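We emphasize that the prediction below concerns an isolated chain of 171 residues; any contacts that depend on oligomerization or on bound cofactors are therefore not represented. The input was used exactly as deposited, without trimming of termini.
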Amino acid sequence: DALAAAAVSNFARSLDRFEAGEALAACSGREAYHKKGMPNDAWLSFSWSNVFLRRFSLALDFAPYLPGRARVADTGAEVSLSIESVKTSCVGDLGPEKVGTVLETLGDADGKLLVRTRDGAVNCRLRKGEMPKVGAVLTSGRPDESADCAHPVDVNFEGDVLPLERYLKHR
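Result of the prediction step, given as a token string:
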């Protein structure tokens, strides 16, 4: 909503400049809002809040592209998942499993699995890849937090909404 407000507030000025024949500067660099690339290269982190995981998944879920992805820690296999719903409960109720642990699967045909998060758990749907086994740990597959990524999100990001300032280009 802040992004939409920023875009709308500059629209009339940009239209005037366009109609006057003034060249509009193309966005460039890491600060450009629409630089090519998926946020965090579509890698999920189950250390994010349930609210952020759900929003992130919804933002990535548009055909024909696959939604978020994770890596099975022990095999290195990549899986594509969508976060279908969140299960917020007392973290202690879920047991001592590590964040990212697959707690339940509902069979390969349904493609549903329950994954432990820092806030509880999320219900996921497997979109591509082999169904991870119960007890497997899913991790963010970004090989290196310092690796080049158009729109990185820290694996331990703690908010529910990304701050927009770094995506807006200021003149």
